[in-house]
Each structure stands twice: as C-alpha cells, then as structure tokens.
Amino acid sequence: MSRPLLSVVIPVYNEETRIARTVEEAAASVDASGAFDLDLVLVDDGSTDDTAAAARAAVARVGGRVVSQPNQGRLGARRTGLAEARGDYVLLLDSRVSVAPASLAFVGAELAAGNEVWNAHVEIEVDGNPYGRFWRVLTEAAFAEYFSSPRTTSFGPEEFDRFPKGTTCFLAPAGLLRDAFGEHRSRSYYADERNANDDTPILRRLAERRRIHISPRFRATYTPRASFDGFVRHAYHRGIVFLDGHGRRESRFFPAVAAFYPASAALVLLAARRPSAILPLAGVAAVAAGAAAARVSPDDAVAFGALAPVYAVAHGVGMWKGAALAAAKRLRPGRAA
User: Which of 18, 28, 132, 233 could be disulfide-bonded to 126 (CB atoms 3.0-4.6 Å)?
Assistant: First the structure.
C-alpha cells in the first residue's frame, strides 16, 4: 500500500554551519517513521553567506529541491515552500530544529485515526547556553498549564492561548495550511511581511477549523543561538511580531499589550527625569524575574534573572517599532478604508 507523501518545508536564512544537520536529520526521521514518503523543499530566503551552497549539497544527498528567492522573511519563505510542496501533508520545520526519533511514526498512526493537525512539543536545547535557559523558562512559564503536565491533548480557539504553538515544527494537511497562510496576507498589521507574525494569527484561524493536537510523543528540539547580539536581535524581533500576533482582542495577551504602551512611556519619562533610577529599576526587574523563576533550577533562575531586563528593553523597543509600522500602514496613501 502506498504511503502518504510528506512535504518537509524548511525556510532558511544564513545558517551555513547548521543547515546540513537539519536536512539530514529531517530526512532520516521521515525514513525511519515508515509512515511517509519524503518530499523535501528547502527555501533559501536570500541568505548572504554560503547557506545556499551548503543546502544544495545536503539536499543532493537525501533528495529534494532547493528554492532560492530574495529575502522575504520567514512568512514569505514558508508561503513559497507551501506553493512548491507536492505532499498530502506538510511538515513546517525551522532550520534549527530536529525532530525526535519515533515522532513521525506516532503522528502517522494518529493521521490514520483522523487526527490530522499536529503542533510539536518543542524542547529548547540548553547545553550550557544561558540564552537557551532564558527561552526555556519564558516558554514554560507562558504555557504553564501544558508544561506542568505534558500529555497528548488538543486545543481549539477557546483554549488557543493556553498552549504552546508555532510553525517551528507543525504538521497538517497541505490544503489546510495553504488556506490559512493565504488568509493571513491581508490581516497583518504591517505592510512588509518580513515583520509579520508568521504563526499565531495563522494557527488561530486554523484552530477555528480543526483542533490542533500536541503530544510529548511528537517531540522536537530547538537549538537557540548562543550570542548576546543574537539574543538581543531575537528579542527585538519578537516584540515586533508579538504586537502583530497578540494586539488583537481575541488574544488573552491583549490586555498586556494595551497596558504596555502607557506603562513603558511612564517608565521612560521617569528614567529621563531621574537617570539615577535606571540601575535600581533594572536590579528590581532582575530580582523579580529570578524570583518568578524560583521553581526552576538555580542555573535557569540565574540566567532568566540576568537576561530578563535585557529582554524587556529589546522586546519593548520592538513593540514600539511595531506600533510605528502599524501606524505607517494605516496612513499609507491609497490604503483601502
């Protein structure tokens, strides 16, 4: 009996040292599952290093194809990959993510039972990386309801914001994903899709059609970057996309978004009038963040406490940048009312 074709769509930008590992591990996971045939599509999104050459060499070893395009951001790269995908199902996979052995065999059996939409349980690799520790604590705190008791379950629009989700490692029928991505084009707050939130609004619409399943048995590992400047850039970009994804009344984070702007403006005014207050405020923030992470390991708590003030500033600047971009789109000449 023929197996369903699984298109693994990998967007990539400037990952010349990592991309071969991602491609080879993805191909091995599909092959080991015994549940799918592989259709691998890698989209090089205008990389400025040797990613394209490394990707072509890796794809040549396992089969598949590389599509190169000018930089459009991860949303545009995923949309290109979806257009190229030939499979019955699509696995969206980020370029720094590995799918755990046996995960796709588990999902293959679930698909046969009618459970067709799957968000991976993503674990963040630490390995002495304080930035990885920070992201792990932040993620598990934001979705404590699930991470306090990881299990095979599903969620719809009502429970959407209580569960971890994203297109980091996400599997669904190809047509369903294309429809969800297509609908998002006109909903973004921003004119430039490189700034758009490329998962939350899309998956929220998808959850209105089908329940999204999650399980520790469909597991993936994300390897974060390990440099301070990479951490700051990531936090800043997350601020921009956070507004696009959660500056909407349907999000449970909307009240926090609405409160952020007056609260942060007041803090900036305080700092401008009393510069001597900046260091004490940062110290209070670090202690509060460490206390909030008291239930995790000491190393995790220290990393989270030390990096929380940096993250808060970079993320906050990103949110203000997002507000400026949203205003620019609304004021753009010729914009439809």
Answer: 132
What is the spatial distance between Cα 43 and Cα 276, in angstroms, rounded to a whole number? 49
pLDDT digits 0-9 by tens, 146-156: 999 999 999 99
Q: Which amino acid is at 45?
A: D
> β-strands 212-222, 97-99: how paired?
antiparallel
Residue 337 has pLDDT above 50, yes or no: no
CA distances, 6 to each of 13, 26, 160, 302, 317 (Å): 23, 11, 26, 42, 39
What does the pLDDT look like over 23-69, one tens digit per residue? 999 999 999 999 999 999 999 999 999 999 999 999 999 999 999 99
Q: What is the pLDDT of residues 103-121, one digit of tens each?
A: 999 999 999 999 999 999 9
Domain boundaries, given as residue ranges, for the chain: 5-227, 230-330
Side-chain-side CA neighbours of 18 within 13 Å: the count stands at 15
Characterize 214-248 residue by residue with b for buried, 16 or more Cβ atoms within 10 angstroms of its Cβ, and e for exposed: bbebbbbbbbbeeeeeebbebbbbbbbbbbbbbbb
Give the CATH class of 5-227: alpha beta
